[in-house]
Amino acid sequence: MQASGTKLVLGIYTTLFLVFLYGPMVVLAILSFQTGPEGGPQFPIIEWSVYWYKHLFGMTPPTRIAPLPIEEALVRSLVLAVMTMIVSTVLGVTSAQAFRKKFTGSGFAFYLIVLGMMVPGVLVGLGMALIANALGIDRHWWGTTFVLHVVYTYPFAFLVMLAILNRFDQNVEEASWSLGVSPVKTFRKVTFPLIFPGVLSAMLFAFTLSYDEFSRTLFASGRDLTLPLAIYGTFSVEVHPNVFAFGVLTTLFSFALLGTYAALMMLSIRRARRVAIQEEA
Amino acid sequence: MAMTAATAEPASADRPARKMPDRTLWLLAPGVIWMVLFLVVPILMMVYVSFWTQTTFAITPTLTIKSWVMFFSSDTYLSALWTTIRIWLIVLAATLIVGYPAALFVGLFVRNKTVQTVLLVLCVIPFWTSFLIRVLAWRPMLGKEGAINLILQGVGLINKPIEVLLFSELSVIIGMTQIYCVFMVGPIAFMMGRIDQSVIEAAQDLGAGFWRIFRTIILPLSMPGVVVGAIFVSVMVLGEFATSAALSGRKVNLLGNIIVTQVGSLKWAFAAVAGVILTILMGIVVAALLRVVDLRKEL
User: Fold this and answer.
1) What is the mean pLDDT of residues A193-212?
2) What is the CATH number of the domain that holds B210?
3) Residue A56 phi/psi, 5° resolution?
């Protein structure tokens, strides 16, 4: 597009849009450096301090403000995210492989899988809680919650893999087959390196979405809290800057994951390029 | 998402063509079984339980429509249904209005691929951060002593803090718009990026102004993105309860909030009724939107 006046206006708008998107997070981050324990969750900053970060790790003398129950919750959330990541990536890769051949009922299967990311957590969570009740099963984060997390993240893995598989040249695999290489070895040596970026993306989706997942977890987990549930618990009471400090840390963790992902992607692209150059030479 | 038909499959002796459906079946079965067991069955269970008999602290599988009658004769529940629909429509419109121009700029006006990627990544990064923290971040923004009131007072636009900003329907709408506009911007920017620049250049060479080009080329070609975005936003807003719980101070009760409260007081059958109504509402909305665009083709 050439229209430079329009471009300028839209550019300014997009800048404001980004401020709207990130502004609250920035304000939250600033307020997490409020002094404690008497400083509240609002401006002005009485004095800059890392009191609330210390409070988070139990490094401050006890006050009337209860520490966030994050220690065990963090372990649970991480274990849950890893479990979800492994299972939904495996399911995503296998189902996407199946979709490379036309088959009857492919439309139905496609929508059934995609439904998992569309149906709101409150509904599946409720349904799962009702089933657990009726069958007399105890609800746990590693059981009922885990299967629901996979229901949510597996469609993402599936779509990512489908997009990757649609793009790559089937002839490469066929060449390998016709040279007498077994299907298993072909998958390991030919297919997998080609779909690796997709697998990585699927893993990123599954891990981060499960780590932050809340509404599915609310009804489906029992007494043991995961991180989002611990945060939700603070909603009903007065909010103190320790929640803000936690918000900053968990956001930084998400950014670190994204950064690792980007670095791995870059490495994989560079390696692919190097291999291509070597083959040309 | 167009499936590439694998017609050029070599049917060699050791891998007869007849075997392929078998392989497809084995690859597909685990995922489909998982979805049936943990997605379809729970939803069906919810429908079933909505007809169970609710006693004070328990439910018994004696079929009745009492919970349904109760839902439709209660002002609280009906107003929750109405609030849900109203908030959904407002947030849907707001995310579209707020997100579309940004998507237009990122997808079409930025010609430098690197800058475009960076902007797109900036727009979708919040998706990978904690939803609850993003909701909570609006509290210090909107409060009576919040950042927005402080700035407006500092500039001199107002001399008394605007109290309606927090713990009101407005705060819920602002919060949801910010959280969900990401899902609008992504698909629209994606469709914008696929528009062939030469078509627009041709229109310009023929003397069409920006508005004409926008109306006749850009808008129709970006529609699939709008519909996909609308489906995402609709489904998520209709199933919401955390934003209204955190930002409305219990003033805004959505169907989701009704479900949470009912589960909290062990009224499972009532919760199930609210859940079924929510499911039907979503089904209607998504079906209507899918009539406009075939998701499988456009993703």
Assistant:
1) 90
2) 1.10.3720.10
3) -60, -40
